[in-house]
Write a structure and sequence with these properties.
Length: 1204
């Protein structure tokens, strides 16, 4: 078996083997489709890859090597394909790969040649022998190298170079064919090889399979890989997730997608922050900065701060506060739900949920434009003080927008998560308490967070944040400061116009909108300056306003607000049961904390040396939310960070039942059980059991003790009653199982990641004891148990019972605040606190059986009571060896097992705090938003069509005066086009505003059709020089190739006469077509349609190139013809394609005897050019030149490596 380094070519194979350093293989698709640069391989990688392929019995494979960018700039070969060819099928050790000969320098434009495909000059004495018949091969270079027949030593070439293993090529070269030429040829295994230009490599894949060598077919594998790749690409289009930090004044949107880390989305104005503002007109909508600018022109149709009305009903203090702040808006109320809606016009009204849905839909469009792919999964931030009604309203708004909400995360939790994610290394087992003070535009929240590492079941030690305390003020924020400033500026303006009989500026909505915008600017400027000049041009009645405002005046206006700054801090400390000494640092979050007075008061309240400002106050919540989105999405895997949020408002269950206090006297007793306590962690699930009910009953879910809220906050909070649960079917379940013992009515509750409470299911549980007779065990079962016990697999009563369908009991926890006697109290049980959403389907209506051994429960109870003592099971195991064997009757007796039956109970929910939007109304709202979105898209399409029409008119009118267009058109043609363009421009100005999108597109199509001939003639004349030059080069090169092919001797000819005749015919036909077409084109005037078309030139080039490529491909893969052995040889030649290393490797030692590693004997030293031409001998001695000796020495090393 022989290993030879084959040809060296210019990317001539559509597929190649990509092998990494570990020796793995990966078949890569067509380079043209993948469009990436190949990987660079070194010699060791090639050797490993070749060894792996040889063991699989492959006969040949390709490795693609790449040069450095510096090689390209120097004009050297920087991208070749080395084909390592092996003959035979024996499995041998890894062969050594020889380094290739020095690469020739590339010359694109050789002297005396027209520009065209790349040509290769003569590489010189150290590379290859020249071939006079193929000396000027234009499409590449032909070389002759080892592998033509025999192995052995180097040959003396006519040009003075020494090459090894010619076997015939050197002999022919010595017969008078040696001549220096600009191109060289190489023969690989007796066939001619060329180096294909880079632009033509992919055409070889279209050659006939008959001229290729037989290689392993991998069509099925490639097809499978293509399908998998297409699936992955389709899946990657939907992998992005987003987060929306929904603030009162503005929002921040962040995304994460494969290949792109967490990033804030830029809006259409390239800003990172987008105003939460919507402008609604009769026929159009505006969002973001566009809507904010419309607030000055149309304040009634511009809606802001509508999040404050989410979940609010008529009579809520926040509704009255909103009316006082923005009197220009007309508010109405839903007759059924008593919720607020905005009355834009008599026919147009929108609820706060619908407005929020519009904003969320707009935020998704921004994220999709930024990510360049559709997005449907999102995490939305909400204030920590949102109750159940407000959270459900946000979920309904997201549903209207078509978003899948992965989680509603509290904005303080998202901020804390962002802070902890970027400081993972600073978190250890020691608890660190950090206070976040977040003062935004509408509210203020203070949060105490504890960071430390905890041990998890899935990932070991991981960092964790736990919300320990929360305090808030719903109305303390930057908006209230701006409203104070606006009122101050209004008084100053009225004072300036006093006595002029002017109206109060407060009665003008547009003027008040201007004053509010100026107040916002003043608040920002006064944070860094002691005073500033407020000025508004044309505030009202074309009167300008100008006044000086100082920081002292601003602080005096907001003095009562600054006094409320320490309030949330005290609430957070009380709920966390901490003092300020336990808090390590206080970090500022939110835009309003930049006010100097706020920082001064807060620093005094917390008693720290300084306030922490090492976090992005505006974007921290958005970054934390998008990290949580990536963690919840199945498309990403992030480093675990445990988040334990806290319940702000406690939730309890209330129920009433009859009790018998005295004999014959029955009364009603009201019971309360805390379901989720204040500052308890969530998400979590709990189960409450009602033991004394055997008929249908009701219970209520309400908020718990809200004493930590003030009177005004309680009024804003709304209803404290959440839901009334009516159970149906309890009595029927008792009648269905009269002989079973009741274990109570179990209600399963879930407080999910979004902080939303839900009742999962209610079920009635019954149990009874069942004894199995000894005869129930069959003979086969006994035999199986006996065999299993012999191998340590015997069954015990515990393991036998586990085979039945059991209902897993939750861990019990005492009900908080319960003072009833044990027989009357309701059992409260906690489920696992792991943040896992319950997605399991409800249990079937059919009863489920469950068997739990009675003695197992007793054993567990005994083990809990005596944890230090040895458990009974351990005692049993310890004394099992000494105990005597039990009698046969005792072994057959089975313990009684517990059978459990579960019956689902019907549930009717009556929502009391805020009734959910009915499904028909929700569908109507969804359809309303979709219609508005479709209308906006249609408007954008119309504007795009109008802009395209207008741009085409102006561009074409300008082109009519350019020389290249005047050359191919007559004066009449230009006047006709100009007249039509002028008429279209006039139509667009007069009637274009009322034209539809279809009309605009039709007008543009009509004008393009009119100008098509003119543009076509200009484009064709621009393409002629390049296309004709390329065609001439290809014809010249093909003719030279055909001439060289015909000069090949008959014994070495690899092309048939039919093939060469076919190529000659194509060349002649192409020449004839070119000359005839150009002559005909010369007779036509420039204003007529040309007959010489660029597409026809390209078609002729492709046909000619296809024929040449066919012949070149045949030259690569055609096997050499066998040659008779030379009778004048002094010693017998080794077999064809064999070498000394092959002969040494074929020696197989006897079994049990190791093969001695012996060096390969060197060939005999002979001199003389005739012997060198006939025998593959190595030349060493006086007759050998230094280059020859050096090459022979390198060959010896290669042979030794082959042996190893």
């Amino acid at each position: 078996m022989k290993y030879t380094e084959g040809r060296e070519e210019r990317q001539t194979c559509p597929r190649y083997l990509n092998s990494d350093r570990s020796g793995k293989k990966e078949d890569i698709q067509d380079l043209k489709e993948r469009k990436h640069e190949p990987k660079q391989f070194n010699t060791n990688q090639q050797a490993r890859a070749s060894s792996a392929w040889l063991r699989r019995g492959c006969r040949s494979f390709l490795l693609l090597g790449r040069g450095s960018p510096g090689d390209r700039s120097k004009g050297t070969d920087c991208g070749t394909v080395r084909v390592l060819t092996c003959t035979g099928h024996e499995s041998l050790p890894t062969p050594a790969v020889r380094h290739p000969a020095p690469r020739p320098e590339r010359s694109r434009n050789a002297p005396g040649r027209a520009p065209g495909p790349m040509t290769w000059p003569n590489p010189g004495p150290a590379s290859a022998v020249s071939h006079p018949q193929l000396a000027d091969w234009p499409l590449g270079s032909l070389r002759t190298e080892a592998g033509d027949g025999g192995g052995g030593g180097p040959r003396t070439w006519p040009n003075g170079s020494a090459r090894r293993g010619d076997g015939g090529g050197a002999r022919r070269a010595a017969q008078g064919r040696a001549a220096e030429a600009p191109m060289s040829a190489r023969r690989v295994r007796g066939r001619l090889v060329r180096e294909t230009p880079r632009r033509d490599w992919w055409l070889i894949s279209t050659m006939a399979a008959t001229v290729r060598r037989q290689r392993p077919r991998r069509l099925a594998c490639w097809a499978l890989m293509a399908v998998l790749l297409a699936d992955l690409l389709a899946l990657s289009d939907t992998l992005a997730v987003m987060s929306v930090d929904l603030g009162s004044e503005s929002m921040k949107v962040a995304i994460v997608k494969p290949g792109v880390p967490m990033e804030i989305v830029l809006n259409k104005e390239s800003r990172r922050k987008t105003p939460v503002t919507v402008t609604l007109k009769e026929n159009e909508r505006f969002f973001g900065d566009s809507a904010a600018s419309m607030a000055i022109k149309n304040p009634k149709a511009t809606l802001r701060y509508f999040q404050h009305l989410l979940g609010k009903q008529e009579g809520n203090p926040h509704v009255a506060l909103y009316r006082a702040r923005f009197p220009e808006h007309e508010l109405g109320f839903d007759p059924q739900r008593q919720t607020v809606h905005f009355q834009i016009s008599p026919q147009l009204q929108f609820s706060p949920e619908e407005l929020l849905g519009m904003v969320l839909n707009y935020s998704r469009s921004l994220a999709e434009d930024f990510a360049e792919q559709p997005i449907k999964d999102a995490v939305i931030t909400v204030p920590a003080f949102f109750n159940q009604a407000e959270r459900r309203a946000v979920l309904q708004a997201a549903r209207m927008a078509g978003l899948k909400v992965l989680q509603l995360i509290n904005d303080n939790t998202a901020t804390a998560l962002s802070y902890g994610v970027f400081r993972r290394k600073d978190i250890n087992t020691t608890a660190q308490n950090v206070m976040f003070y977040d003062m935004g535009s509408g509210s203020t929240v203070c949060t105490i967070v504890t960071y430390q590492t905890v041990k998890t079941k899935e990932a070991g030690m991981q960092p964790q944040l736990q919300i320990r305390g929360v305090g808030f003020d719903r109305t303390l924020g930057g908006l209230e400061m701006e409203l104070r400033l606006r009122e101050h500026l209004a008084r100053l303006f009225n004072k300036q116009r006093k006595g002029q009989g002017a109206k109060d500026v407060r009665e003008n909505p547009r003027a008040m909108a201007k004053l509010l915008r100026e107040a916002n600017r003043l608040k920002t400027v006064l944070s860094a300056n002691a005073d500033h000049m407020a000025q508004i041009e044309g505030l009202m009645d074309d009167v300008d306003f100008k006044a000086k405002v100082t920081r002292a005046e601003f602080e005096e206006l907001c003095a009562d607000l600054f006094e409320r700054v320490p309030g949330p801090v005290q609430q957070a400390l009380q709920s966390a049961e901490m003092n300020l000494d336990e808090v390590e640092q206080v970090i500022l979050v939110g835009g309003a904390t930049r006010v100097p007075k706020v920082q001064e008061v807060l620093l005094k309240a917390v008693g720290k040396e300084e306030l922490g400002k090492n976090i992005n106050a505006d974007e921290a919540a958005a970054m934390g939310a998008v990290y949580q989105a990536a963690a919840l999405s199945k498309a990403f895997k992030v480093k675990p960070f445990v988040v334990r949020d806290a319940v702000i408002y406690p939730i309890l269950v209330e129920f009433t039942r009859e009790v018998e206090e005295e004999p014959g006297v029955r009364s009603l007793k009201h019971n309360k059980r805390v379901l989720f306590s204040r500052m308890g962690p969530y998400p979590q699930r709990k189960v409450i059991t009602f033991n004394r009910y055997n008929h249908d009953f009701n219970f209520h879910i309400n908020y718990g003790d809200l004493g930590f809220l003030g009177p005004e906050d309680l009024r804003v909070f709304g209803s404290q009653n959440l839901t009334t649960v009516k159970l149906k079917g309890v009595g029927e379940s008792f009648k269905k199982y009269p002989d079973y013992e009741s274990k109570g009515i179990k209600a399963h509750f879930n407080l999910d990641e979004s902080g939303v409470l839900s009742l999962i299911r209610v079920e009635s549980v019954f149990e009874t004891l069942v004894e199995d007779s000894p005869e129930e065990e069959s003979t086969l079962t006994k035999l199986g148990n006996t065999i299993s016990s012999l191998f340590g697999g015997g069954t015990t009563p515990d393991t036998k019972e586990n085979g039945t369908d059991t209902v897993q009991e939750e861990e019990e926890s005492p009900a908080e605040g319960s003072k009833d006697e044990p027989g009357e109290q309701a059992e409260l049980k906690e489920e696992a606190e792991a943040p896992v959403e319950d997605t399991s389907p409800p249990p079937p209506t059919e009863p489920k059986e469950a068997a739990v051994p009675e003695e197992e429960k007793a054993t567990e109870k005994e083990n809990e009571e005596k944890p230090e003592a040895q458990k009974p099971s351990e005692k049993k195991e310890a004394g099992s060896e000494a105990a005597p064997p039990a009698p046969e009757e005792e072994k057959k007796q089975k313990p009684a097992r517990k059978q459990r039956m579960v019956e689902e109970i019907g549930v009717e929910l009556v929502v009391l705090d805020l009734p959910d939007l009915p499904e028909d109304e929700l569908a109507h709202s969804v359809q309303k938003l979709q219609d508005l979105t479709s209308r906006d898209l249609e408007k954008q399409e119309r504007e795009k069509a109008a802009n395209s029409l207008e741009a085409f008119i102006f561009e074409t009118q300008d082109k009519l005066y350019q020389p290249e267009y005047q050359e191919v058109s007559t004066e009449e043609q230009r006047e006709e086009i100009s007249g039509k363009l002028g008429a279209a421009s006039a139509w667009l100005e007069d009637e274009g505003f009322g034209a539809t999108t279809v009309m605009l597109k039709e007008k543009l199509t009509e004008l393009r059709k009119l100008c098509h001939g003119l543009f076509f003639r200009v484009e064709e004349r621009k393409k002629w020089p390049e296309r004709l030059a390329a065609l001439d080069n290809l014809l010249n090169h093909s003719s030279m190739f055909l001439k060289g092919a015909r000069l090949i001797p008959e014994m070495e000819q690899i092309f048939t006469e039919v093939e060469m005749t076919t190529l000659e015919k194509v060349i002649n036909e192409t020449w004839a077509w070119k000359n005839a077409t150009m002559a005909e084109q010369a007779k036509l005037p420039a204003t007529e349609k040309p007959v010489l078309l660029s597409k026809d030139i390209e078609a002729k080039m492709m046909a000619l190139d296809r024929e040449v490529q066919y012949l070149l491909n045949k030259a690569k893969f055609t096997k050499p013809r066998p040659r008779p052995k030379d009778k004048n040889a002094t010693r017998a030649e080794p077999p064809l394609n064999a070498s000394a290393s092959d002969q040494a490797e074929k020696v197989i030692p006897p079994p049990g005897q190791t093969e001695d590693a012996k060096p390969i004997s060197e060939p005999e030293k002979e001199t003389g050019s005739e012997q060198a031409d006939t025998e593959p001998l190595e030349l060493e001695g006086p007759g050998a030149e230094p280059e020859q000796k050096e090459q022979a020495t390198g060959q010896k090393r290669t042979l030794k490596n082959d042996e190893l």
